[in-house]
Amino acid sequence: MATGPRRVCFLLRVKPDRMDEYRRRHAEVWPEMRAALRETGWGNYSLFLAPDGLLVGYFETDDLDAALEGMAAKEVNARWQAEMAEFFENLDGAPDEGIVPLPEVFHLD
């Protein structure tokens, strides 16, 4: 049985004409947004962007529901999600509401 934080991976798709701006925005994530992620249990968080716009997100957390709920309650997250929503294809609602964890099928520790 796995111990330690849960590894969470999710996929979204960035609009092809918005990829450069998406990269620029993530090179300058607001310090208060970074702090909110840490405070609400998002650890080892990474985003990977493929040339076709496929965005792969990965983070670790002790409690996924608490991490998502914690961020949903943060004012800075509401501002960030409102700004980021325009970058994504086929998304109803805020980007963080589009997080559907992929099932993990293998992990080498």
Describe the structure.
- This protein has 109 residues and is α+β, with helices and mostly antiparallel strands.
- It has 4 helices and 3 strands.
- A 3-stranded antiparallel beta sheet has the order 1-3-2, with no helix packed on it.
- The longest helix has 10 residues, at 75-84.
- The radius of gyration is 14 Å and the shape is globular.
- The protein starts with 5 loop residues before the first strand and ends in a 25-residue tail after the last helix.
- The mean pLDDT is 93.
- It comes from Prauserella endophytica.
- This is L-rhamnose mutarotase.
Spell out the key features of this protein.
single chain, 109 residues, alpha+beta, 3-stranded antiparallel beta sheet, 34% helix, 21% strand, globular, Rham/fucose_mutarotase, L-rhamnose mutarotase, Dimeric_a/b-barrel
